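Worked problem 6 (solution included).
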Amino acid sequence: MERPGVVSFARGALLWAAFAVPALTADRVGLNEPRPGWQQAAGVVVLAFAVAVSRRLPLVAFGLAAALNLAAAPAMFTVSYGPALSGCALLLGLRAARARPAILCFTAVGCAGTARIALVGIDPAPEWLVMTGTLLFGCVFPWLGGRYWQQSRELAEAGWLRAARLEDEARFAEERARLRERARIAQDMHDSLGHELSLIALRAGALQVAPGLGGEHRAAAADLRTAAADATDRLHRIIGVLREGDDEPVRLTPAGETLEQLVARAAESGLAVRWDPAGHDPAADSDEVAERLLHRVAREALTNAARHAPGAPVAVAVTGHAAGTSVTITSGRATQDGSPPSGGGTGLLGLRAAVTSVGGEFEAGPHGEGFRVRAFVPRRRTAGLPARPGRAPFAHARRRVAVGLVTAAGVGVALVGAAVGWYAWTEKRSVLEPAVYAALRPGAPAADVERMLPERDVRDPPAERAPTPEPEGADCRYYRASGELFVSVDHFRLCFDAGRLVAKDVVPRAGLSREGGENDEEFSR
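Solution. The predicted structure is:
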């Protein structure tokens, strides 16, 4: 199995080779002006360092590539280091986390190129256009492509993570549903059986104090009441164990039983309860969730009143309106000795959690000489629901990058088109036909020679390729021997002194080496 370090080194070596090959061969095939060997070697070393730091410091790698291009040509348009510039820009977009440092670096490179053109440029206008197009197409455009690629990859990874999270959530939801079902059963047993046992204890208490009952039967009724109270407490403790760990139990009511029917059944069992429907709007009870919750609140409150305040008068008041429905259960002071309340308080806690979970309000506490429980449950609304969340941030980021790519492409095409047009226009007007060059003779008056010359001379002459040095004190001009564009061509050098043509030479195109006399003979023929 290959180690990650070996794979990373191999990839870096391949990337360096891809950058170094153009740097070493562009001069030899005539795509660049010839450079000394030490400059080529230094450039290859700098490219190696840029590749070495491109993974951890992609901004530094891009800066090194940009520096090489600026050193080789003010307009940054060079075949030797152009691939390295675009490659490092692509890696910058792919590996850099933030966009601002890259934008600042592009701006700095553009300013440095502009300053260099202003200081040493021969023809600033077209050189600046070429530099701007190179910066856009060779830097900004690959950088945006790298960022788009990076965000697409991150979006795919986020999608897989979301799928895994949804699977986990589905598994957790299934487990939680099982726990809720257990809690539902426990809560239903607590509410229904506890209520019935409390009513049994209430009836046994009424039987205990009934007139004309013998002592033996009174003792049996007392034992029955005590046994019902003990069974209620044990049921409460068991249900507490079953509900442990669940904070949102499901609440059910006996099918078809309304609040009024619940109060009537409690009254038939001997509880001194009074139904107060004042202010109750039956049309407001259309919400099934509100009905169930209010039924449970009333049932729990009546059960507690029967257990802890036997004989006390109880009033149940219901108020319904458009916003929701409220129920208030108020019990007075007990007329009999009741059993002490259990210490758990799970029933009231469960009521509070149930009501507040749907946005309602719950209150329970002493009221006068007795106790009061009040609950308000709002009606559920379908209007005004929150909108669905928007698309993932990565999708918005990818859209912004795509817009940036299109914008950069449009601006770059316009600038490069303008630069190419200006380059073609100026180069075509600096072409000296070989036949005209052959007709020129040293010693001819400068005025006669200038009438035969083109409108412009070459602003960036290849003086380093000239076969002989320029005559001392002479004014030398260079003209293209051919109208071919984007390739190295032969040039003619004409030197004037004291109003006469004193020398003419042929400067060979890149990759050739000729003597001046041989060239003169060739173009003379």
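Discussion: Residues 97 and 226 are 73 Å apart (CA to CA).
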